[in-house]
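Exam review. A common question shows you a sequence with its structure tokens and asks you to describe the fold in words. Practice with the pair below. Do the first one on your own.
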Amino acid sequence: MDAKTISVNKDILSANSKTADRIRAVLDRHHCRMINIMSSPGSGKTSLITKTINRFKHTCSIAVIEGDIASSIDAEKISLLNVPALQINTGGGCHLDANMIEKSMNDLDLEHLDLVFIENVGNLVCTADFDLGAHKNVVILSIPEGDDKPYKYPVIFMEADIVLVNKIDVHPYFDFDMGTFPEIIYGLNPSAAVLPVSTKSGEGLDDWFSWINKILE
């Protein structure tokens, strides 16, 4: 009898994509934009989100969906800014998926929201495989991580609409080649923008805020 191969991974991703399309349709009906932020642990996702909330909270309504393997530390930080923050704990899973996001959206008042941030689980591998229904994907790479990460984890950079190089305030202390890094990204993803920033000093954040403004138009 011939062996039959079943592609479980393909079926999972196909079902996830259908859910993601459904999420985008719901968001579009409510004129709400969703941005998925991905990076390694400690690259600065939460810091970027808090800086962005402080910049825009008086001109638009924002909510955040926090993804972590465990704890609600980041969601608690966001809640202190008086914006809705929903926590998803994956219990060991290395990424969020569209089904998790769709369930979380039931707790959001989309009618009165302009922008939703997803802070994905800290991971450069499997987070890139799952469409979450976001309108834009942001990847953060911090200076201490090194400029070779796009070679090691190309898929996540291929999925990015913008790559933020964070912690440029410590650039003098690390061998990160900022001159050639954009060329590496453009080689993988010609349409991705590359933006050096520091969430600590604020350098480059005005350009990031301008990018957000264009998303909200």
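Now try the second one, then compare your answer with the model answer below.
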Amino acid sequence: MARDGVTFEQVEAAADALVGEGLAPTIRAVRERLGNTGSPNTIQKHLARWRELCPSAPVPMPNIPDGILSAIAQEIERAAAQARTEIEARLVLVQAEVAELATVGEALEAERETLSALAGELTRERDTLAGKAAEQAQAVERQAREIERERQAAEAARIELVQGQLRSESQAEKLVEQAAEILRLREALEASQRAGQQAGQDAAVLAAKLEASERRAGEIEAREQAAQARAAEAERQGQAAARELADARVMEQACLARLESAARELEALRGKKPDAGERAKAKPREGKARNLDIIEDS
């Protein structure tokens, strides 16, 4: 768009130069003479003032000899015709300027409508991203609660496993059940970790969209400052969601480390104690030996 700020003196000098070259001082001609700068509306205003201040070319009065009245009448008619021609030429010039201003006005109106549509699209996209950021934050919070529950369950299983080391051999089946529960917890934690990774990918995609939205908002910052502020707010929300996701991942790693420690303790316990099957086989053999001793005594 053209920049405002040209002065009347600049327009006056350009118009005088064009007239001196035998050219019509139109808006476009004056603007080109000024280096394609200045608003068409401002140039037209200065041109109108210049025309008001510029006196019409004086009609030279011929030296008419006394007694030739008919020649005087003819000369007056010629001067009037010249004045009419000059006025008509000026009228044509003004009409051309009006048409040019109408064209410029239509172009400005089309640009305004385009910018308005772009602002509406950016607003809708900003609202969509804000909604996705809120959903992502809720998902991260749910993941964090689920990980905390799994961590507490794993901790309870580890405590139960340590207590089982002090119990009798009859609790071996319960230890097996605890091992199965620990395996289930591990699978649940792996599923939770995969969900956390997916949430991280979604957060990265959301951050990329927010960055693209911020760049587009920067291009029309002068026309849509409010949209830019809201887009920045959506970006801050996305960063907060990313930080919460990072905290959730740290909790996942801690929980997984504790679960692995519990699994190692279970393996160590299995290596120290005989399983239930071997104890069951040993008891009948002891009974048979007692029976043989009784028969021999009798």
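Model answer, second protein: The two ends are 124 Å apart (CA to CA). The chain has a mean pLDDT of 76. Full marks require stating both points clearly.
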